Amino acid sequence: MPSDSAAAVSAFVEGAPPGELADVIADVKKLTANEPNLLDSIIPAFQKYNEEQLATVKLPGSSKNILISSYNSLGDGRYYDAESQRSFAFDHQTQKASDVQPYTPNFEHSDLVTSLIKSLSTHATEHYPSPTTAVCPSPGSINLLLVSNKYSPSNFWNGRWRSTYTLSHSSPPTLIGRINVDVHYYEDGNVRLTTSKDVKEITLEGRTGLSHAALAAEVLGKIEGAERTYQEELNRGFSALSEGSFKGLRRQLPVTRQKVEWDKVGGYRLGQDIGGGRSR
What we know:
The protein has helices at about 5-15, 20-30, 45-50, 110-125, 210-250, 270-275, and strands at about 55-60, 65, 75, 80, 85-90, 95-100, 130-140, 140-150, 155-170, 175-185, 190-205. It is an alpha+beta fold. The protein has a five-stranded antiparallel beta sheet, covered by helices on one side. Strands 3-4-5-6 form a four-stranded antiparallel beta sheet, with no helix packed on it. Helix 1 (about 5-15) packs parallel to helix 3 and helix 4 (about 110-125) runs parallel beside helix 5 (about 210-250).
């Protein structure tokens, strides 16, 4: 059973905001200086974070990001990339890749996988900043993964969009998925938005004789529609918060119905000048 310290630190790691895992680790090291081996004891927490958050990594000598997930795990800390046909070791604490080796997958429906890789990459590039995608076959299905990270620490905010979909090999094929959005804003405060939506089962036409490219196009059409709908829902929700709930949190003007002249605030006499009362 993990110690209380290990359990607490694991919670910090698993809850790290987008792009801020290194900051969390640095703070934890300062807080647990008397337990120098503590971080090494919570590797499962790092693995859970990286796989659930669809962490990305560049392989040595490459400029292309590769996704980390439970879907492309080979076990023992190794992962594969179906597109480049390579496998590699991944250090979950440092988020670094090493020991890259050729990997020849033996996928069912390999031609469909190839078409989905191309279609998903095109969709992501057209609609998201700095996206990374992966297509990972499983027994009886194909998993499509998309993550888009946008970090702006100089402006005190970071954000991440994650989409995961599963395409079944049934007849007709079906598609289900989940979309997650995580945004952290921390200038003079600490505000975090985490929201998600399940994409309910969609039955595809999957007509007999349909080419792999045509089926991939149909799949990505459904994905694009689901993600557009969710983005529109988020926009409406933000507008409602801005115009409704947030405005209700504060009075628009002081009780005097006049704006405060903040450059003169040091000279105000609280009762008389702001409250409208008389000096006594």
